[in-house]
Each structure stands twice: as structure tokens, then as C-alpha cells.
Amino acid sequence: MLRRAAAMAVVLLIVLTLVFFLMRMAPGSPAYLIVGADASPAEIASVERELGLDKPLMVQYATELGRILTGDLGESIFTGDTVSHELMLRLPITLELTMVSLLFWIPLALIAGRVAAARRDTPLDATVRIIGNLSIAVPSFWLGALLVLLFGLYLPGVLPSSGWVGLAEDPMGHLRSLVLPAFVLGLGTFGVTANTLRVSMIESVRTDYVRFGHAMGLPERRINRSLAFRNSLLPTTAVVGQLVGVMLSGSVLIENLFNLPGMGRLLVDSIRRQDYPLAVGATLSLAVFFLLANLIVDILYAALNPRVRQKFAGT
Amino acid sequence: MTTITSTRVRVGPRRRLVVKGRHVKGMTVIGVALVSCYLLLAIFGPMFTVDPLQRTGDPLAGPSAAHWFGTDHLGRDLFSRVAAGARVSVLVAVISVGIGLVFALPLGVCAGYFAGRWPDELIMRVFEAIQTVPLFVFAMVVLGITGVSSFHLGPIEVSAAGKIILLIAIAATPYFARVARAATLAEIQEDYISALRLLGVSRRRVIMDELMVNVLPPVIVQSCLWMAVAVFAEGALGFLGVGVQPPTPTLGGVIADATRYMMAGAWWYCVMPGLVLLVATVGFGLLGDGANDLLDRGER
Amino acid sequence: MTIAIEAEGLTKHFSLKQGKGSGPWFRARGMRTVHAVDDVGFKVASGETLAIIGESGCGKSTVARLLLGLTEPTAGSITISGERRVQLVAQNPWSALNRRKTIGHALNQPLLIHRPDLDKDGREARVQELLDLTGLPSDFLLRYPADVSGGELQRVTIARALAAQPRVLVLDEPTASLDVSVKASLVNLLCDLRDDLGLTYLLITHEIDVARLLADQVLVMYLGHVVESGDADQVFDNPVHPYTRSLLDSVPVPDPRRRKELLPLAGEVPSAVDPPSGCRFRTRCPHVLPKCAETRPTARESGEGHLTACHLTAWSPS
Amino acid sequence: AGADDTGGSSSSGSSGTLSVGLFEVPVGFAPLYSNSQNVRWVTEPATDTLLTHDASGKLVPHLAAALPVAGPGGVSYTIRLRKGVRFHNGDDLTAEHVAASFNFIPGSRGKSQFLSLLAPWFNKAVAVDPLTVRLELRMPYGILPDQLARIPISHKDFIAEKAKLVATGPFQVGKVVTGQSMQLTRFDGYWGPKPKLSSIVMTSVPDPSTRLVNLREGKIHIATGVQPVDIAGIKRDESLKLHEIQGTGGIRAMLNMTRKPFNNPDFRRALAFAMDREGVREAVFHGEAEIAQGPLGPNVVGYDAAYRPYPAKADLTRAKELLEKSGVSKSTTFKIMVSTSGAARDIAQVFAENWGRLGIKVTLDVADPANWNRRWLIRDYDMSLTVQEYGLVGGSMPLSQFTVYRASSRQNPGYRNGGFDRDFGRLFATADEAERAQLAGKLNKILAEEAIELPPVYPKLLVAQRAEVSGLDEKALLLGRLNLRGVSISSR
Amino acid sequence: MTTEPLLSVRDLDVLFDTARGRVPAVRGVSFELAAGEVFGLVGESGSGKSTVLSAIMRLLPGVAVANASQMNFQGSDLMSMSAGQLRGIRGTGIGLIPQRPMTSLSPVTPLRKQLRWFLGDMPQSEIVDLLDQVGLRAVAERLDGYPFEFSGGQLQRLLIMLAALARRPSLLLADEPTTTLDATVQAQVLRLILDLRDRLGLGVVFVSHDLGVIAQVCDRVGVMYAGRLVEAAPIGELFDNPRHPYTQALLRALPSRYKRGERIKVIEGTAAGANRLPGCAFAPRCPRAEAMCREQEPETRSVGGALVRCHFPEDAAGANKPKEAAA
Ligand SMILES: Nc1ncnc2c1ncn2[C@@H]1O[C@H](COP(=O)(O)OP(=O)(O)OP(=O)(O)O)[C@@H](O)[C@H]1O
Ligand SMILES: Nc1ncnc2c1ncn2[C@@H]1O[C@H](COP(=O)(O)OP(=O)(O)OP(=O)(O)O)[C@@H](O)[C@H]1O
Ligand SMILES: [Mg+2]
Ligand SMILES: [Mg+2]
Fold first, then answer.
1. Any idea what DSSP says for residue D81?
2. What is the pLDDT of residues C177-209, one digit of tens each?
3. What number of other Cβ atoms are within 10 A of residue D223's Cβ?
4. b/e per residue, D60-84, with b = 16+ CB within 10 A?
5. Separation CA D147–CA D51 (nearest Å)
6. Which of A282, B15, B80, D300 is deepest in the core (most CB within 10 A)?
7. Domain end point (choices E218, E245, E262)
8. For residue E326, what pLDDT is reported?
9. Are residues A142 and A14 in the same domain?
């Protein structure tokens, strides 16, 4: 566990370093945006001094590192609010979106994959595979745009085609506003998960334990559920773990497309404004989010896989 | 569209890839057909169509004999724009996957060869960091910061398209390297490696002549699948407005423009380029699956 | 009589990183040591065959790898007389050949290194010679390992090993994966090669029958220790160590009239990570004494050149 | 506007929440920091100005008790304040607050474009007594009363706070979700007529199509930044209403005259003749714009519809002659620096297409906002092109159109003309309307004829609303303002 | 026939539909098995031994086509059984000991739970008792563990307990149950199987390619070559007096019959592709094959106590006694 935490810290450090130096490579500085269009060089310099942008790069890096290590992500250049506060406003939205999307698609994928494997080579199986393949391949931003069109222009009022409704304001509206983005965000997850499960369940037919189960006259249901499905969950879980990163990536697209005020939007906005502290904070927290999600999936994986569980407990 | 493309699951003591059902061949053929269509469009489309930068019709005219895909909001022929965009996509995808391979192969093989020791740790940790920042986050950070126009990296000027290519290549590298590493790791357990070393074959030669032929196939499969991801990523970046910049038409850029005109009922504007993009992603995906089945031969 | 191989006090411990299974995350801190080979010594005279027998995991292959220089010993020394020409024939021929390269490529590879004097034609002739020597048809050269049966492939790995003109061949379970008839022809081949080329073999096997046919000397290992060694005839016909006896007894004889009363050893082979103290066989030994747990028995002569490591050596069971 | 409005009772005013969809809800919304129209729009309901325009467009006192009184030489103005006005935090409005708001103007940073336009004339503000403020100017500024109708008065303690707003308007800032939405709730302590709405929500909906969808869905009541292409659809829709306002924005197309060949007037004019203005109007604005001939657009003093130095369609023969005459190589290439806005990129592409016919290869150079500003300031561009909404500087006075061409402007693209500067000074000093019109027309002609600034068309401000919303003030829109004070929503 | 055999298989054919066409894996195999009898099946890799067992269990993969004129288990026809009936027979009527004990139980479920699947609601004490009977008393406390925590020998005994002991099947199919085990552990397992046979009167089909194992445990042996059962005989007779040239060659090639330094007499050629040949499958490698052998399939004939599929069983008999070879 300790080792893992250390590894995570190293990864985050690399990410931070990367992002920091990339940011500073950018031409110009946020000062130009702050001072407005009619500023004198002296004014710009004074703003830069105020932001600490005039110091040598390494000094800036060290200060920033020191600050972040103490848990202080700084303040947004534009709102003056603390970055952590800004993040706390946005993080739950992305989190919820991702969760809802996963909770919607993963069970569906598990069912589809299982049914397809059970009805192998039937039209049903073919349908699942075609839908699965399409769902992986279809460009999410395009599909999202078409859905906005569909629900905005042709089916107005059926589902909100964009925007965010707070849970407190209108719980039903809140759920409704999540439907389309969650649908698009997790679509690929469906295909990948269903495919993985299907393939691995079909493969499990040839395993010794399924054969032995048959030879012992176990009921079909038991074999499918306790042997084939249970064991196929392992590779499936591993794949889902990787998908979390994909979904985070997708949230940048989806949140902008559906106009959701989550981390993806924050990131795009803060970068557009060259709001360094906010952008660094957003990137870091997405990275942390990603690592945590992977940790959870790994724990889940360990829970499913006794071999790993033993080692996990041993650490 | 996702960046996780490999749904292959390795099961069992012998490393054997999952044998898919009998439909595999048909699917692969479809994949080849789709990719061929796409490549034909990308290579020859721009030669036989009107200039995608010239306004040759009314703005937002629907598909017709003169404009197969209709026109865009400025009255330019959508088909020629889509064809030109497809060309950009393919170029970006091919070059970025190529660059990714060039970086990933030696690193992945090196990591696999020194598995568990510091070169492996170092390489994998850096790749992990890259993978920790999702592609679009990474792209937004880089493109948002260095701007969407060309910039100077020391004495070298990196064009806007070059930047996107590099980005996709960097994002792909960890995936390729992981596959290469895993394949290397599996391969060096095989007896033939130690047998060859015993025979006095130099390490370099063992790696280049013997190991590589076995590491390449899974990496090629992965790169086929990444072609789909790269085409998608190029489109998505264009869609976010940080892709290859106008006037060069790109699929994502066209779709992004199209979203502004959807409420005017110009469905074709959004649908057509998206379908072409879909053809590419489905095609490359199926092709990757097919390559997987094909290149797996030779294993016992 | 020249000594071809001499090993003294060979020891190999692996430090075990646990749970290398799933990604870099699950790597435990606890390092554990596998006592794969402990204080193993032997001599093999030139032209002779030493068989190392013992059950799986007792460290046979590790001895082979140490001998070949594929792993560094934790302690001990290996002397191989003259030029260091040792080659390996391993158990799994599919793994021993690159599955994406032709057999011709496999045979040419060592020639390029060991026979730089040969031109292309010379190499071709030499490859043909090797094929003839191992009884393979020449149309094999263009085939891939997957298209060839296991027995034939094993011949290919032998031919490849011979291309380097070794003095010593380490045979790590060369016949384990083969059918009866194929196994027989391979044993013949090994006999012929030894006679024709004067090779020294280090044969590692758990097949007592094969060891009986090929070995001059035998070394019996149990859990990293040598429990008994000596002339093949002596060890096979007159085993002393309780483990050797059980092992030889457990081997089923293909003769229905010589059905043995199967009196197997109790229990399982203990783990090499945490081997029993003293005599490692004591947990399964039918004659265990209190002292077995305390001290490791030293090898004592129980006949000419016949060494046994057992506290009970003097005691001779009926 | 009198305080004794008929529907003044709060019971009739509690008719719900109005939702406005904007391109973005700015993260910092102190009105005096405003660089964008959006800031002004989201803060408008919460702020008051000293003067305001009445229904006929005439200036009337608002926070001021009476119209300002000019001092000798027109370099100072004295303003009496209305009594009994309260800030949202309960403090009384005093001259100190007003002075503080004005004294913010010459501050070194965070100035809006609007304030920077005022700064050269403005010296300082003094609180003479609790209800009297004196504004001191550096030189005569005839349009000051006009400007007093634009400058929002904030609480002195909160002027420098970017994300806080304490003013005296009929609404006060409620819940703010950074970058996403901003709620304005009715301020019960408001001194003037009570608004009919109980609250207003400003929501950021960056995508114009989405904005329109939201409007159709009823999720928002007012959508700003409507695209020309959607006009026809909105007009067909019974439940929607469209406001088309001329002269509240412009296309800023500047050539960097410190670089070759843009310092060559014939070359510039060749470009002007080869410009397909009609193409831009049809393709980019779907016919919903006027052909432009200079920076001065309709609805601005001095605009002359009959003034047409350049053809609507590209005149390539004339352009080629001029290009020949200029001696500039035909194989010139240059880049048009555009912001990420869709319209600017579209216009640039139409330009490129036509100039390409002259043999000049033009490519786009897209810069994100931060970069754009920087490059503009250091003149790192060949040609820059933006589509601007004037916002607070909109209205009938050409406040921003000519400013950059003064020799002293830091944004000047390399234009030096003493005569121009002199006329510019007089334009703003005079209080005489007719003289202003004459001077503005003259300046416009100079810029047009020398092809200093080449806007292809004058775009319109397009705001759509749902039919159930009534009382949206079109006159205010003309000034780039979104006056929601009289707005109500009828329940259907 | 006075008593009905426990299992009788007649003319069993199994074809595999593969990408390279139809592969006949088992051709015309017939044999019978009485209760309490151990019938060994030997033959080289790929000769179809496992396929025969799978066919009896009706567990062939989907690509297989199986045909038999008769396949009776305790008088009922296995070929015509429905899936439900088969499930009733599997485990309770016919038990199967798998070849690879390490992978034959689900790796992700504790043993206790898996035992429950197989044993239903058998009381704990009975389970402990069963474990005791296969020498796994010590394991009873560790049942919450997972399969990978146990050794191969332990698991194999556990599987034997499940397949042969717990539900008292009358027929046991064992597919190379000891090949993955060490010699000393193999002895343990073999002994267990024989014990059970003695105690429960099981009929056992024992597949192995190790003639040593076969010799130690079987009553009767069938020798398979290229999908054919070429010879079936009581164990003593087979070893003393093999009649089919393949059997003879196989026995001759046993290393244990030779002394150090002797050359083993081997069978030339390979079995590859033999299952597609028109005549006798062994003809290409047979020292005394005649034209007829290459064209015409030999019928199974009864010679002495043996059933032989050879045109010249008498000729071959005695001509090559292994002892002479060894002499
Ligand atoms: N690289 C390694 N790392 C850790 N442990 C090892 C390694 N190689 C071998 N071992 C352990 O050392 C012991 C001896 O292994 P070795 O392969 O020499 O046995 P063996 O007698 O050849 O067995 P087999 O008959 O199964 O081939 C085993 O317990 C094995 O698990
Ligand atoms: N699923 C399958 N698809 C195609 N061919 C198969 C399949 N299973 C077995 N075969 C073929 O059937 C033949 C008999 O195989 P089988 O496994 O029964 O042999 P075996 O005697 O058990 O061999 P081994 O000793 O290697 O276990 C072989 O030629 C094999 O290639
Ligand atoms: Mg070994
Ligand atoms: Mg088998």
C-alpha cells in the first residue's frame, strides 16, 4: 500500500512537472488578459511581478512545488478564489457524470456480453457485437452533436439536450439533464466491456474448470454464473479500470458539448484564459481522480481475484 | 470512441489469443473494405473534386447532384471538404502512429528486457504519468498553452499539425510500449533467447533479429487499432477547436462548424463528415481485429 | 580421464519478489528467498554422462542454468575444462526455437558465429551434415517450428546445439514431452552422438528409465540438496537414501507381472522458500530420527564412489 | 423613468425567474473591470448609473438628482446625488462611493476597454459633500453626460473585488456558479420602481446552437448572440421573437502598417477592392448585415449610407490595376490573425478566397484570446481580424472606432496622421451634435479611403427571446445594454 | 453375454470440423467395460484417447460430430439422451478425473463453496469423512482457501474424491490423471484410484500414454493408433503377446526394456496424417504391410483373448516377442 502511494506520488510529480513547464513554455502570460487590451509594457510587467512570473523558472517551479506539497493549490488568477474551492465546485459534477455513466453502461454491458456469449453465433449475438463495435467506434462528439440536434430540434422537451440542473434545485430535472451526456460518455465503455466479457466467457468454455463442472453434472445456470461469468469478470474488471481514463478524457469533450460545468469545462476554460494555477489544479486533480479510480478498480480486481488479494493483504 | 482498443483477453497457460467466432473473416473483410473506401476518398477524393476552399454554391444547400454531400455554411462543397479532411486525418494518424512506434518499440523492448530493474521502472513510471493525464486533457493543456498556431521549439518550428501529430504520438507511445514490453517479457522467458545467447549470438542481434519479429506483430495490431484512435483524436481536437486550423479542412473542424448550423436544419453538414469519420474508426478497428487474428499464426 | 565439468558447492538462492502478477502496483515489500540449489557438487569425466534426477522443483534446471552461465551462482564454482563449449537442449522444443523463423535460419545462426571460415556454400553443406547427423530430411530447412512434430523439433534443437561444436551438452529433460516411440528414437540419437562425437552429457530428467539408459553417473536431488550420487549401476540397483528408494519404487514399471505394491511417500514436497531444517527430506521420510531436524547429514561413502547424505546411511533397511 | 411606476407593488412583481443564455458568464464580474459585453449584461440589473435614457432616448437623471452642471471651460462637472438610495449591503449611497467609482478609472490595471477610452480625459473625482460629487477633467469632454449613463456606480469597498458586486441596482447578486451561472435576486431595498421579476439567472451556454435549443425548450427566455443563419427559423417560430439591432458591433480588420507591404496604400486599396463584401454578407451573415465602407456603421453619428468608395462585390480588375501600381509582388503571402470565434474565421476564409484570386496567398493564423491580446499589443501580425460587440462603448457615439488610429494609442497598427488626431480631439470635446456628425464622417472617410481599416460588413446584434417575455428594452440594446428592469414573463 | 456391461461403445466415430476440413479423430472404436474393471486406453499423442472420453461424457466441443451405433451406459443409450438426462448421469453415473488438477477448479472461489456446488447440502461431517478417505484430513481445515493454495497432488485427490467417491458413480473416466504429477505423488494418486475401484467396484476407463502406469493399474488395455482402436486385450496378454504390429513396436520401444548402451528398436515414420489414410492407418510404418493393407481397412478380429484390427494378426503374433527383442 505504501509502495503504491509512493508510486502514485511519483507519477503525480511527473505530471506536475510536465504541466508546469509546458505552461511556462506558452508565449505570453495571463498578464495580457488581466490588464486588458490597452496596457503599457510597464503595466504588464507589474502584473507579472505581482503574479511572480518574473522570477527565474526554476524558482517559480520550486515555489509552486512547495506550495502544492503543503496542499495549497493557490488562487485562480481570474476569480481570486482558491483553486481548491473552484475544484470542489466542479469535481462532483464530473464525478457524478462518470459514475452515472458507468452505473448505466457497465451493468448493461455485463448483461449484453453474457447473453451474447450464451447465445453465441445467433442473431442476438451478432447484434450485440455489431452494436458493441459501433459503440466503440462512433466518435462521441459527433454522436453527442447529433443527439443535441435530435432532442433539441426534432424532439424538443423529451430530454434536455444540454445544461446542468443542480440536484437540490430539481432532482428529477437533475437526472434528466444527466441522461444524454452520461449516455454518450459511456457508450464506448459498453462496447469494450461487453466484448471483453463475451470473448472471455466464450473462451472460458474451454477451461478445465468449466469442463469439470460439466463433467460433474452441474446445472447450466451454475456453470454460466459461478464459473464462466465469475471468472470472466476478472479480465473485464481490468479493462474497465483502463476505461476510466478514457472516460475522463471524454469528459473534456462531453462537458463542452453538453455544457456541463465539470472538470472538463473548467480545464478548457482555465487554459483558454491561461489561468495557470487553476489549470494546474484541474490537471492534477484529474490525474488524481484517474489514479484513485484505478486504485478502486484494482481493489475491486483484488476482491475478485484471490491470488491478488493475498498479495494485496500481504503488503 | 475510446482509446482502449484491445479487447483481446489472454487466457490459459499457453499464451494464445482468443479465437473469435466464425464471423471474424467477414468482419475483417468489412474492415478492409471500409478502410479502403476511406483511403480512396482521402487519396483520390481531393484530386477529383472542386477546391474545398472555394465557395461554389449557396450556403447550407442540401445534398444534390452538384454537391453530393451538400454545401457548408459558406457555400463550399462539403464532399470536397470532407475528402480533404479525410486526407489530413489519415496523414495525421499514419505519421503519429509511426512516430509513436519509433519511440515505443525500443523503449518497450528495453523495459521488457530489463523488467524489474531500473530502466524498466523509469520508463514505465514516465509512461504511467503520461497515461495518467487523459489524452484530451493533455492535448488541451499543450495546445491551449502553446497555442494552436506553430511554435518554436528551439530552432525547430513545429507547425500546428505537427503539434497534433506529436501529441497523438506521445499519447500512443505508452500503449505501444506496454504491448512491446509485455511481448518482450513473454518472449525472453522462451528458451530460444537463452539458447541463442548460449550459441554466442550477440545481445543486439538477438533483440533485432529474433525478438523483434515476435514483438512486432502484437505491436502492429495495437497500432492498427490506434489508427482508429488517432483518426478520432484528430477529429476530436479539431472539434474542440485546437486541431489543425482553418483554412485546412479537417473532419473534426467541419463537424465543429456544423454544430453551429444544426438548428438551421442542416443535418447533412454534421452527418456526412461524421459518417466518414465513423467509416474510418470502424474500419481501422475491424482491421486491427483482423490483423490480430492473422498475425497470431505461427504460435503453436 | 579428464574432467569435463566440475562443480563445487554450487548454491543458488533467488530472492522472490512476490506478486509480480498484475502491473507494477502489486509488488510486496517482503523479499523471500528460494533455496533453489544448495551446496551441490559433482564431477563429470569427459565423454561420460551424468544424470541428475529428482522431482519437479528440486533445482535440476537451476543447476543446468548455472552450468550454462545463464544465471550467476550465489556461491560455489564451476570449472569446465578447455574452451567453454557448452550447449543446451531444453525440454520444450517449441520454446527453444523462434516460432517466426525457419528451421534453416535456426541452424545457420550458430554457424555464422562459430564458423566464420565458412562461406554460404560451406554453411549449406554443414547444415546438411547436421541434418544427416540428427536424421532429419533436408526439406525441413524452409519449414517453421509449428509445422514440425515435437520429436523432430527436438532433433532440430540438438542439431543447432551441435552446430556450435560443443564438448558438453546439457540436456534438460530432452524427452519429457515426447511420445514413447519418438522418445526412443531420440534416446538412440543421443547415444549415437555421444559415441560418434565423444560428447559429455549432463542429463537432467525425472524419467528414471531414460536416465538408466544413458547415465554413467547419477546425482539424486531433493529440494536443492544432493541426497545421493554415484555410479549409475550402484545407485539404480542399490539405492541407499530413503528418498532414492521411494523415487525408484514409485516409477511404474511397464510390466503387468511386476506390479508393485504401491507404497507411496506421504505428503507433499515442501516449499523451497522455507525448506525444512536439517535433512530436507525428513518431513516425508519413513525413518525420520530426531537428529534429522537438527543437522544436515553430510555425504558419506556407502560404496565405491557412491555417496549418500543420510543420517541413517549405516542402517541398511531390509 | 419615474419612481412612481404603476406596477410598483411587489406582489405583482413576483412573477418568476427569467433565464438568460449568454456565450459565457464571466468569472469576474465587477462591472468596472468589464472587458466584454457579457460582464456588462450580467451586472446591468444589479447596477445603476448616474444618468439614464428615457423612452425617447433623452438623458435623464437616475442616481443623480439632476443633470450634471458643467463648470467653467467644460473641464469640471458637478453632480447632485439622489437621497435615500441604498446599496445592497444596506449602506447609503454617498458622494464618496461615486467618487471612488470614478477614481478607479485612471488606475493602472484591470481597466476595461471602456474605461481606457475615458482615461485620457479624466482627472479625478471629489466628494464635495455627502451628496455632491465633482468630476475634474483634463480637457473638455463634450460627451461626458452620455458617458455618465454608462458608468455603473459600485460600493467603494468592493470596487476592486472582481467576483463581488455591491451596487444599488434593483437586483442583487445571488448564487454564483463560477463560469456557469449567476443568479440575481430582487433587491427589496431598491429605491426605484420595483422590477417585475423575482430573479434573473444568467447561464453560460457557449454554443449558439445549444443556446437556441435551450430557448426553444424554454430552458432560457432570452438568448444572446443569435447566429444569422438561425434568423429564418426563429422568425418562423411563433413562440420566439427576435431583436435585430444595428450598429452595436463591428468587424475590426486591421493591417499592420509597420510591415511591408501593408505600408503601401495602393496595396491596401487593392485588397479593399478585391474584398467580396457581399460574399461575406451572404455566406457568413446570411444576408443579415449591411455592406460596410469604413469603421463607422449605421446608427452612429456621421454615418452616410450613400458613401460607397468600394464595390459590394469584388472588383478584381480595379484591384489588379492597383496591385500593379503598388509595385508589390503578386506572389505575396500573409497571414490573417483571427481569434477563435467562428465568424472571424469564416470572414477570413472569404477574404482569403478572393485575395487568392489576385494571386496573393493568404492563410489563417488562429490565436486564442490571451495570445491574441499579446500579439496585438506587440504588433506581431500581418492582418488582424475580430468581430467585436461594442457593448458598453456601443451606441451612437463612435467611442472605439477611431481611437486606435491616434498616434498615441498603443494598439495603433502603424498609422500616423496629425490631422486625424486633431479632428479626433475635437470630436470628443464638442458638445455640438452636428459638429460631431461632421467630424465622425470625416474621420471615417479618411480611414476608408486610405484603406486603413477594411470592415466588409456591419453586423447586427441579434437577441432572441421567448414570446412570453415582454418588456425587453430595445433602446438599451442599441446602447449595447440588456435592460431587464421592465421585463416580465406572462404565464401561459 | 450373460451380464450387461457397464459401458459399451460400438463404432464410435468423431469428426472435427476445422478450418482445414474434417479431421476424423476417432474412427470405429468399440469396447466394453464391466463393473470393477479398469480399462486402459494407450496411444500416442493425438491418437484420439481424450476424444473417446469426451464422447462418452457427451462433452465434445461444438465443432465435433460424433456417431456411434451404440453407446450404452448401464443399458441406457448415451447418444440419445437429452441435455437434462445427461446432466443427471454426469457426476452421479459417470465421474471424470481431469488431467490438470491445478486448473480444474475455479480459481476465484473458495474450495468450500465449490464443494457445495458439487456436493449439495451434504453435512460437514460427511465431507470431512470423504476428505479423510482420500488422505486429505489435513485439508479439511483449510477449505476456505483457494485452489492455488494447494498442491497438485492434493487437488488431484480432492477431484478424485469429488468425481469418484462423493457421488458414487459407477463409471470413472480418468484422462491422464497423473501426468502433471511427480513420481512419488503419482504413486499416491494411482493407489487411491485402485483403492476406490476395490472398495466401490467402479468401472474405470484409464487413459494414459505411459505404458508403465497402464501396466500397473489396468485389467484390460486398448491401444489406439490414429483414431482406431487397433488392439484390445487383457493386460497380461497384451504385454506378453502383442498381436498388432503397432502394439509390438510400441512395447519394443520402451526404454525400460533395454540396458545401458543398447539401441532401442524404434518405429520409423510418424503418425501424422495417418487418420485420413484409406487402408490400415499403420500400414505406412508397418514392417510387414502388404498391398492389401494400404487399400483395405482391416476388420476387428478376435485372436486369443484379444481383439485386433489387422489383416495378419496371426502372422504377427509371436514373431516379435519383446523378450526376443531384448535378448
Ligand atoms: N528465476 C527464478 N526466480 C525465483 N525462483 C526460481 C527461479 N527459477 C527457479 N526458481 C525456483 O527454484 C526452485 C528450483 O527450480 P528448478 O527449475 O531448478 O527446478 P527443476 O528441478 O528443474 O523443476 P522441474 O522439474 O519442474 O523443471 C523451484 O522452487 C523454483 O520455483
Ligand atoms: N477441438 C478440436 N478441434 C479440432 N481437432 C481436434 C479438437 N480436439 C481434438 N482434435 C483432434 O483430434 C485428434 C485426437 O485428439 P485427442 O485429444 O483425443 O488425442 P489424445 O490421444 O488425447 O492426445 P494427447 O495424448 O495429446 O492428449 C487430434 O488429431 C486432435 O488434433
Ligand atoms: Mg526443470
Ligand atoms: Mg488427451
1. B
2. 788 888 899 999 999 999 998 899 999 998 888
3. 29
4. bbbbbeebbebeeebbbbebbbbee
5. 9
6. A282
7. E218
8. 37
9. no
Nearest CA to ligand 2 atom 17: E50
Across residues A31-60, what is the average pLDDT?
73
Contact between chains at C252 and E212 (C-beta distance less than 8 A): yes
Q: Quote the CA–CA distance of D114 and D80 in Å, as a whole number.
A: 24
**Number of folded domains in chain E?**
2
For chain B, the average pLDDT equals 79
User: Which residue CA neighbors atom 22 of ligand 1 most closely?
Assistant: C61
Identify which of E29, E51, E206, E223 to mutate to test ligand 2's pocket (most ligand atoms within 8 A of the CB).
Answer: E51
**What does the CA dihedral E229, E233, E239, E243 come to, rounded to 10 degrees?**
-70
- Per-residue pLDDT for E106 more than 80? yes
Contacts of D370 in chain A (CB under 8 A): 28-30, 32-33, 272-274
Cβ contact C123:C108 at 8 Å: yes
Could you tell me which chain B residue has the CA closest to the CA of A152? Answer: B263
Query: Cα(B203)–Cα(B187) distance, rounded to whole angstroms?
Result: 14
Number of independent structural domains in chain B: 1
Q: Which ligand is nearest to the CA of E41?
A: 2
- The answer to which of C98-112, D386-400, E23-37 has the lowest mean pLDDT is D386-400
Contact at 8 Å (CB) between A18 and A290? no
In a domain, A74, yes or no: no
Distance E55 CA to ligand 2 centre (A): 12
Mean pLDDT over each residue of chain D, to the nearest integer: 84
- Domain limit, last residue, from A69, A102, A117: A69
More confidently predicted of C220 and A164: C220
ipTM over 0.90: no
Task: Quickly name the fold that domain C3-85+175-180+200-309 has.
Answer: Rossmann fold (3.40.50)
Residue E226 forms part of a structural domain:
no
Structural domain spans, chain C: 3-85+175-180+200-309
Domain boundaries, position A16 = 2-69
The pTM (predicted TM-score) of the whole model is 0.83
Residue C56 alpha carbon to ligand 3 centre in Å: 7
- Expressed in angstroms and rounded, the spacing between residue D354 Cα and the centre of ligand 3 is 79
Whether residue A258 is found in the same domain as residue A233: yes
- CB count within 10 Å of CB B13 equals 8
What type of residue sits at position C314? A
pLDDT digits (tens, 9 = 90+) for D172-225: 998 887 777 889 999 988 988 888 889 999 988 888 888 888 888 888 899 988
**What residues in D contact B144, CB-CB < 8 Å?**
368
Reduced to 3 states (helix: H, G, I; strand: E, B; else coil), residue C307 is: strand
Lowest pLDDT segment from A95-99, B23-27, D158-162, D271-275: B23-27
| Residue count (chain E) | 327
**A280 and A190 share one domain:** yes
Q: Answer whether A46 sits within 8 Å of D411, measured CB to CB.
A: no
Cα separation, D42 vs C20, in Å, equals 58
Residue E268, in any domain of the structure:
yes
Cis, bond preceding C297 (omega within 30 deg of 0): no
For the stretch D41-85, pLDDT in tens is 888 889 999 998 887 878 899 999 999 988 888 889 999 999 989
Whether pLDDT at E314 is above 60: yes
Selected residue with higher pLDDT from B206 and E325: B206
| Angstroms from C4 CA to nearest CA on chain E | 21
Residues E316 and E202 in one domain: no
Mean pLDDT of chain A: 82
Q: What pLDDT is stored for residue E170 in this prediction?
A: 92
Here the CATH number for the domain that contains residue B188 is 1.10.3720.10
Subunit contact D366:B247, Cβ cutoff 8 A: no
Q: Is the pLDDT of residue B9 over 50?
A: no
The yes-or-no verdict on residue A62 having pLDDT over 60 is: yes
Interface residue C250 vs chain E (CB under 8 A): yes
CATH of the domain at A135: 1.10.3720.10
Asked if A126 and B23 come within 8 Å (Cβ–Cβ), the reply is yes
Question: Is the distance from CB of B73 to CB of B60 less than 8 angstroms?
Answer: yes
